[in-house]
Fold this sequence. Notes:
2 domains
Amino acid sequence: MMITSMVHLLKVSIVLVLIHSSVAAAQDNQLIYEPRPDEFVNSCSSCHGRDAKGAGFLTRVFKGVNPGDLTQLSRENNGKFPFDRVYEVIDGRADVAAHGERAMPVWGDRYMNQSMNEYGPDETNVFRVRNRILELVHYLQSIQDGP
Ligand code: HEC
């Protein structure tokens, strides 16, 4: 009797461990940086346009603001996608510390606030923010006109 309930307990805990590790694997998979067109459309197209070429509706509201053509970043950089610079510009926290106010929102702060609201003060938030920015950088890299 004792033995069968021990065996049962063991089976239950093995199942629980298996469920737990597959959940963990699914979470790890989310850390693969897929390009995210949906995030670009939601957060960026208002200024940059859906095609990233710079004709979002906000550029008609803020006259004189020119967000540039985000499909030309490689071309403007001798054919090499300026990965680190694009990351820094989107994150914006270092940029603002160095240059002060700017027209583009500081996404590093925004995404951090969203993560804090959603998950509370959790140290993984730093990676969640990094992940979201990396997805955008990869998306921009994937839509470059030319190399
Ligand atoms: C409120 C308008 C606005 C929104 C929303 C916006 N941007 Fe920008 N962005 C700008 C402006 C304006 C510039 C030009 C630089 C400046 O004036 O700050 C710019 C510049 C950039 C640059 C640098 C281009 C270059 O030539 O180096 C990148 C990359 C960029 N934005 C990506 C994004 C991404 C990704 C998002 C969405 C997460 C986004 N932007 C959302 C207004 C915006």
